Amino acid sequence: MEHYGAPGATKANPFWLQLESGFVSNGRPNALKPADLAKPFVHSYPEYVPGKPIEELARDLGLDPAGIIKLASNENAFGPSPLAVEAAKRALAQGQLYPDGGCYALHRRLARFHGLVPEQFVIGNGSNEVIELLGHVFLGPGDEVVMGQPEFVVYRLVTLLFGARPVEVPLVDFRNDFPALARAVTPRTKLVIVSTPNNPTGTASTTEELLAFIRSLPGTVICVVDEAYTDYAEKPPDIRPLIREGRNVIGLRTFSKVYGLASLRIGYGYSSPDLASLLDRVRQPFNVNAIAQSAAVAALDDYGFARMCVAETRRGLRRLEAGCGELGLKFVPSEANFLLVRVGDAARVYDALLRRGVIVRPLQQYNLPEWIRVTAGTAEQNERFLRELATAVR
């Protein structure tokens, strides 16, 4: 049977002849606009707003890029490990070859790093992709995802992408309210997402409260623990005992922060082999390029560089806290690599800092219109920020 585009269409009256738009004068059918063909939810889907790039600010305001500092995206001010850079160069020399689709070397290096087995890892194009893989496997219309508010906006975006409903539980004193999170779980809940340290507040959960919360969850729920900033925390929780107990839990890590590989987009999840295998099934072939894989393996080997980055970042945070205190500004003590600072009219302060060549993150998107988030930079960058902030908040 011949097919003419839709039920009821015939050779004499094909589907495209039935379109209300009809024909144009040259005999070709009028095309509908892409917006008319898109899924309806796309029109109301929230847009992720990244930190402003240095080059864009320089173009917009006619500033010298060399005089601009970016403290908006929680990047590592000390760059990547020299070992990672050399490994990336070696991989680039073989750029004509496809990457290892199974990330064999990185799986094994991560297994040694965490004291687990290679089958417990799934590698993503940033940890963001692992969140999306969780959506592919577990979420659909009618499902619910419980999360704090404010927390990393991508949790909400991925939930909406799969037609599920985000259930946002307000933080208390900028910390996750675990009793309230537990009460928000219903038979429709598929995922509960907890970040520690939290983005954008910088607050961290204790081992005792996090593990007790996860153990309280029903077996029908997967708990996702986002550990993107865990390297900076003084006493980060360890969820590996829960994995050994057979709990439905997965930890997410990234190479974008302490390892300084944000531009290469590589992260991972670690869990039970069964959960990791499910996520691996829906992962696209060659989702992580060879340069990123090689750099990540080398970065894990450079313990000294990672320790230096953590120590200098903590020192920078203490300086930012002291400086904001001297200006009479409220801030949230942080265990990440950034500081949440209350400045009043954040949009005005953000714009004033931009005009002085300092990029920070305004937080209207997180329903925090009086706050900015500033990444701890080098000692010089931190002092520059504090000087410019003193002028901007007047």
Structure description:
About 40% of the residues lie in helices and about 15% in strands. The protein has 15 helices and 13 strands. Helix 5 runs parallel beside helix 12 (about 290-300). Strands 2-8-7-6-5-3-4 form a 7-stranded mixed beta sheet, with helices on both faces. Strands 9-10-13-12 form a 4-stranded antiparallel beta sheet, with helices on one face. A two-stranded parallel sheet has the order 1-11. It has 2 domains: about 55-75 and about 305-390, Aspartate Aminotransferase, domain 1 (Alpha-Beta Complex), CATH 3.90.1150; about 80-300, 3-Layer(aba) Sandwich (Aspartate Aminotransferase, domain 2), CATH 3.40.640.10. It is α/β, with parallel strands linked by helices. It has helices at about 15-20, 35, 55-60, 80-90, 105-115, 125-140, 155-160, 180-185, 205-215, 240-245, 275-280, 290-300, 305-325, 345-355, 380-390, and strands at about 70, 120-125, 145-150, 165-170, 190-195, 220-225, 250-255, 265-270, 330, 340, 360, 360-365, 370-375. Helix 9 links the parallel strand 5 (about 190-195) and strand 6.
Keywords summarizing the entry:
394 residues; alpha/beta; Aspartate Aminotransferase, domain 2; 7-stranded mixed beta sheet; 15 helices; 13 strands; 38% helix; globular
By CATH, the superfamily of the largest domain comes out as Type I PLP-dependent aspartate aminotransferase-like (Major domain)
Which architecture name of the largest domain does CATH use?
Answer: 3-Layer(aba) Sandwich
Main-sheet strand order equals 2-8-7-6-5-3-4
If you compute it from the alpha carbons, what radius of gyration comes out, rounded to the nearest whole angstrom? 24 Å
Low-confidence parts:
none
- Could you tell me the strand content as a percent range? 15-25%
How many strand elements?
Answer: 13
Helix content: 25-40%
Q: What gross morphology would you assign?
A: globular
End-to-end separation: 76 Å
Q: Can you write the helix and strand succession as a string?
A: HHHEHHEHEHEHEHEHEEHHHEEHEEEH
CATH fold-level topology of the largest domain: Aspartate Aminotransferase, domain 2
SS class:
alpha/beta
Give the tally of structural domains: 2
Largest sheet, strands/sense/barrel: 7 strands, mixed
Alpha plus pi helix count: 15
**CATH hierarchy, class of the largest domain:** Alpha Beta
